[in-house]
Structure formats: C-alpha cells, structure tokens
Sequence to fold (292 residues):
Amino acid sequence: MDSQLKLLVEESPDAILVADREGIIRYWNRGAELIFGYTASEAVGKSLDLIIPENLRGRHWEGYWQVMSSGETKYKTGLLSAPGQRRDGSRVSLQFSMIMLRDEAGAMLGCGTVMRDVTAQWEKEKKLREQLADCQAKLPVSAGEL
Amino acid sequence: MDSQLKLLVEESPDAILVADREGIIRYWNRGAELIFGYTASEAVGKSLDLIIPENLRGRHWEGYWQVMSSGETKYKTGLLSAPGQRRDGSRVSLQFSMIMLRDEAGAMLGCGTVMRDVTAQWEKEKKLREQLADCQAKLPVSAGEL
Fold:
C-alpha cells in the first residue's frame, strides 16, 4: 500500500508539498508543478518564498516560526485560505491544510500541505457578490430591507 | 521522505483514500474518518458504496468500471464534484481528484482520491444565488435587464 500512496501523492492534481523546519521545500509533486509552474528540481531546496507573494511573507514567516518552535497549530482539522504566486508572477487563490510532521520521538521535522487552486470558485463567488450589490443599489428604497 | 509523505497522507484533514479495481476501499486516512464518520477499520474492505448516496451508485459504477477497464479517465488534471454520504445518512458536498494507480508494468491496480468537504462553500454560494434571485424579482421592470 505504501507504494500506492506514494504514487497517489506524486500524481495528485492538488499541490502536495513538504517543507522542513527552516521553511525549505523538501518535496514537490506533479500538482505543485501544474499549479505554480516550477518543476520539482527547480523548487526542492528553495525557500517557501518561491510561492508566497512578497507582501505576505512577513506574516507567513511569523506564523511559521511560531508553529515550528511550539509544535502547535490552531489549524489542526481546518483549512486555510491565502493567495499564492505562480512562476509567471500571477496570483492563485489557494485553500490548504497544514500538517505537522514529527519524527518518532515527537521532534518537529517540518510541515506538509495539500493545496487546492480555488481561483475559479473564488471568482465565481466574487462575481455573485458584485451582481447582488449592483441589484441592491437599483432597488427602490421602499422595497429595500431597511 | 517516504515516511514523511506517509504521515502527511495519514494526518491530512482531506479525505484520502484508495480503492482497488473492484471498488473495494483499501486505504482510508484520518480526514476520511472525520468527513464520513467511519474509522479505517470499519471502512477498509468495504465497497465504495459506503459513502455513495444510493441514487448515485448506478452512475458511479458505470464510470468506475469504464475507467478500470480502459485505464483512461477524462479527469486527469481536473477536479470532480459530487455529493457523498456520511455515516449518519447526511449528505456532504465533495470536490475530489481521481488518480489512476498502476503497477510498474502499467496494469491498473485501482484509484486514489483526495476529497475535500466543500459543503460550507457550496451553501454560501447557494445563499448568494438565492439573494440575487430575490433581489432581481423585486426590481421594477424598467430597471431590470430586459
């Protein structure tokens, strides 16, 4: 079964990656290649900054060091949302997990993540919000929910 | 790295599972336990029918046998959407990948999937659509887009 799980991870269309305690990318699958535009040989060994938009790096690393030093995260079962940056500089809306990786003695090795590109969904929802705001602006005052 | 990938898969909040050529569940991670409400020991060895709503089973298996016999799927890089069924009978909206698993000689072993519970997003979008329809119904005809 282990070889099948490895194949599943390698071939997943979701970006699956592992970073070590220092935030250096140690594993990068096919989905990450598709979503971000870097091959595994280009990404492995680089900092996660590779895919973090510059204006979000400060906040990212503050959280990352805290999680790595404390071994605790508040996102155990939930999913996070944040924009990522592709090779061509464009933004991608990501929804992702954060999975703590420890050795058998419990020492932190780094973290893993499963990232899904939710740009299309995000844009669909944004368009609906805009259409709703436009419509509400056209309503006569008496028909509005005042 | 293999042991870290295995840990990542085991602990992922996404449901990650493997089914064999016959559609029998062979691997079931922590996320699948959380989303569907069955433990790994309850799910492994059972048919995928465990999580497929009854009215969708015919369509599911038709597609499944076709993929297993042809070794081809049209969903190589994309994501599928379908409702699943939890242990308590309630529905869950799922967005998932389908990853072909083959042995080294290329023979089909089954398939793997990474499933994300998108029920909350789905409901948010549905509510927006309803609000928009309600608003459009209240618009004076002259302000409508006729």
About this structure: Residues 119-138 of chain A form the longest helix (20 residues). The interface with chain B takes residues 1-2, 4-9, 11-14, 16, 18, 26-27, 34, 76-79, 95, 97, 99-102, 109-110, 112, 114, 116, 121, 124-125, 128-129, 131-132, 135-136, 138-140, 143 of chain A (CB under 8 Å). The mean pLDDT of chain A is 91. The two ends of chain A are 60 Å apart (CA to CA).
